[in-house]
Amino acid sequence: MQRLDVIAQKFAKNPLVNELAVEIYSPKKSLHWQHGAPAKQYFIASTTKLYTTAMVFQLIDAGQLGLDQTALSVLGAETMRELHVFKGRDYAEQITVHHLLSHTSGLADYFEQKQTDGSSIGGPLLENNDRDWTFAEVLELNRTKLRPHFVPGSGRKAFYSDTNFQLLGKIIEQVTGESFAVNLQKRILGVLQLEDTYLFSANTLGRYDSVAAMLSGTQRLRIPQAMASFGCDGGMVSTTADGIKFLEAFMNGKLFAPHWRSDWADWRRIFFPLQYGTGVMRFQLPRIFTLFRKTPEFIGHSGASGAFLFYAPGLDAYFSGTVNQVKKRDLSFRLMLELSMALD
User: Fold this and answer.
1) Dihedral of CA 52/54/60/63: which sign?
2) Dihedrals φ, ψ of 139, to 5°?
3) Tens digit of pLDDT for each residue in 200-231?
4) Burial per residue of 118-128, b for 16 or more beta-carbon CB atoms within 10 angstroms, e otherwise
5) How far is CA 278 from CA 208, 281, 282, 333, in A?
6) Peptide bond into 273 cis (omega under 30)
7) CB 321 within 8 A of CB 332
């Protein structure tokens, strides 16, 4: 415990870290350790994708959706029209739920990918140029200003795209006839009693200042409109304590059928050193980067806000937390690695 405290205190003193919050739970080691305020809310960014994944798995388990079902069969031809024009041919009708979950659709990323004029949505946000956007705008960007990367399901290719999860959120809404927020409450938050977790939206803009501030370098970010626009691909607020509850349920078949835990492990590289399976991210640093000391395998998700939510099977340890930093994305992984090595 003392070693963990020392590591956390070192990171908390880093001027690029704001309101450090981290929690580790390991049944195997009879350990439950916390640093910071476990009830302090923060933006979990793309860690939201795990919640979206869980609900898609639930719908498939219930027979309301198919893993290999096309997005077009649910969302309709008009929504999918010209979303994936690659080398003069529109492949949008071939995109399946599995392609979206595994980032193997080849679709462009509406958020960080550079548009044909060299701009992006994400870039200006790092300089506090706040803006909002809609699902319709996401579709239009993909049709007119962004280029897809490959034909859906091409070999072992994968490209991380927030557009994939925007479509999955709409699929959940279309299949259930209820909003993403209502599904989230009914299917996960209410079931697990996650009282400090919610979807940030236009209705909660006034709560922005009650959430831990994110930094871009040393500058505090104030981007409430953007955070309210991410929705199903990165718009949730949570705490370390709620994160642990959710992750344990996610990993132990309490939200969906247990078989998904083995089914999601078809890992494909997205960007070093991260891989993606079916709706889940994997992180493991090669030994060459750690003086040939083996590092744990982590399965879960990270967020561009500096949030992380990962399970280390070899340690039977759950890691939940944030460094609240959007520019130095390696910080959260470095923290998690150092803490895990202290556990081993």
Assistant:
1) negative
2) -60, -45
3) 999 999 999 999 999 999 999 999 999 999 99
4) eebbbeebeee
5) 32, 8, 11, 21
6) yes
7) yes
Task: Give pTM, 2 decimals.
Answer: 0.97
Q: Which two tokens stand for residue 176?
A: 């259930």
pLDDT at 80 over 80: yes
Name the helix (H) or strand (E) containing 182.
helix 180-184
Please state, in angstroms and as integers, the Cα–Cα distance from residue 77 to each residue in 72, 142, 155, following that order: 6, 15, 26
CB atoms closer than 10 angstroms to residue 103: 26
In this structure, are residues 111 and 75 in contact, taking their beta carbons and an 8 Å threshold?
A: no
Cα distances from 109 to residues 10, 124, 142, 227, in angstroms, run 35, 16, 8, 17
The percent of residues above 70 in pLDDT, for the chain, comes to 98
Q: Which of 305, 343, 344 is nearest to 323 (CA)?
A: 305
Structure tokens at 57: 């798995």
Name residue, tokens 């090669």: 286
Q: Which residue is associated with the tokens 């993606």?
A: 276
Distance CA 278, CA 100 (A): 9
State the Cα–Cα distance between residues 48 and 275, nearest whole angstrom.
17
Residue 200's φ and ψ, nearest 5 degrees, are -70, 135
Query: DSSP letters along 38-88, please?
Result: TT--EEEETTHHHHHHHHHHHHHHTTSS-TT-BHHHHH-HHHHTTS-EETT
Q: H or E stretch including 322?
A: strand 317-322
Give the C-alpha separation, 204 to 229, whole Å: 11
pLDDT tens track for 299-309: 999 999 999 99
